[in-house]
Give the backbone structure.
Amino acid sequence: MGSNRRETRGARRVGLRSRVQRGFTLIELAIAMSILMIGLVTAAAATMRMHHLRKQNRERIVAQNAVRSIAERIHAQSYRFSEDPDTWATNLLQVFGAGGTFGNTFEVDLLTPTDPTEDHPGSIAILTNETFTDNAIGFELGMPRDLNGDGDANDVDVSVDARILPVVVSVAWRSQSGISRIDHVFYVMGY
């Protein structure tokens, strides 16, 4: 009988050991929870970054479309006004210049202007000064340039008799990552 008890106690000890070995210790559980939390935080950070990039991409596409649309309007009006070369530049400036019918700024839906005092994030600059340099403008346009075809590049205002005009269409907006900007520089010609 004595050996039977020993065997029973021994069997209980083996049973206890196997149950302890089958379960998780508190340390193992803490490590597993830490790994799970790191995975969840990483997934949440990646999701937030993806959302941020998607918003930036949407804003950039909106700005690019606005710049493209304005450039197409300017080209279309330039072509329309080219029927009368004597008033081509004047008419173009009346429509797209400061105080013109269209104005030299434009609204872009979904974009916030960089300055709270500004109403519109888009701007149009039609350059009529032949003496400007590329450094002064901030773009590589080949300036100074003879814009009115008179043989020199010394005229300060060629708005009356210009044959070619440089145009800068810009959109600048405040995004989550700071100030973003898209510029489109091109020439329009009076045929």
Remarks:
- The first helix runs from residue 2 to 22.
- The two ends are 120 Å apart (CA to CA).
